[in-house]
Structure formats: structure tokens, C-alpha cells
Amino acid sequence: NVRTDNITYFGDKIKSISNIEFDSLNFLGSVIVKDFKLKLIADKIDAKLISKFQNTADKYQREMLVKELLSRGFDLDLNTDIKDIKALSQNLGFLNLKSSLKIKPDNKLFEKLQKHDISDINFFMDLKTTPQISMILMNLVPQSTFAFAFAKKDNGMVELIIKIENGEIYINGKKIKSD
Description:
- This protein is of the alpha+beta class.
- Helices cover 23% and strands 54% of the residues.
- The protein is built from 5 helices and 10 strands; from the N terminus they run βββααββαβααββββ.
- It has helices spanning 47-54, 59-71, 109-114, 131-140, 145-148, and strands at 2-9, 13-27, 31-46, 74-87, 90-103, 121-129, 152-154, 157-165, 168-171, 174-177.
- A hairpin with a 2-residue loop joins strand 8 and strand 9.
- The longest helix is centred in the middle third of the chain and has 13 residues, at 59-71.
- The chain is globular.
């Protein structure tokens, strides 16, 4: 039983709100996910560039349009909540993710990023899950192991909060990088 809805507002900028929910989903009898909710909001996306992108087949032109689209800035919010995950009859527990990405408009965005200047990016992520799922995430994305080393672990829950603001990176409140 999957429920979806999508609302998109068009103007000079596009805003899209998408929701997906299901009570239970069984993946080939190996993985069972129960009570899944996902909400994605994309906002401040340049409508003219999206139209150009959709009507361009040339790979190089599409790459340039993506760079221009990112340089114009946008907001993205993703929230996911899964009450129960089982894999191969093993109960892995829950996963709750709240995240937000805001890229400020800046024609020099990619030049700055090449110099490791992340001042145009604001990011927030709050992940709450179980130790079993955090181990799976670290195995799937080995680069995340560093961040998980700073995660708060308490009463069978792992919480990882990552924040990037004004060019500074924080993991669970600990400053990792500054200009």
C-alpha cells in the first residue's frame, strides 16, 4: 500500500513538494521495511534553466546547465522516517533523517569549491538510528566512518548531527573545519 503525492508550483522559480509513504514493503523476502515516510521539498529552482536542461541532449551542454543551475542557488529539504527495518530475519531497528541543503546564489560557486571554500553552502543533517544501521551505512559509505566517530551513542540509539554554516563544519557540535 504505497501513497504518493506531489505538488509543484511554477513561476520564475520552481517549488516541488513530494511525499511517499507505505505501511510495509518486502524486498524479495530479504528486507522488510515498515512504516516508511519520505518528504522532499525542492525550492528556488530556476525554471528557465530546467526547461533548457530538459530540451538539451548534448552531454556537455547539460553539464554546463547543471553548473549554472547550482550557481543560481536552491533549497532542498529531505525528511525520512522508517519505524522498523528487518534484513534476513534480523531486526535492525529504525531510521530517522532530517536534512536541509541551501546553496546561495553565486556565479563563482565552482571556483570557490575548487579552493575548498564552502561558504555558499548551508547544510544540516540530523540522523537518528540504531547501531546496526549505522554500521551498514559505514560499510556502504566508508567515508562516513569519520563522521560516525563523533556520533552520540546512547540507549541503543546513534545520533549524528552534521552542520555546515558560514564555511565551518560541525559534527555533533564539534568544529571540524573553518576558513
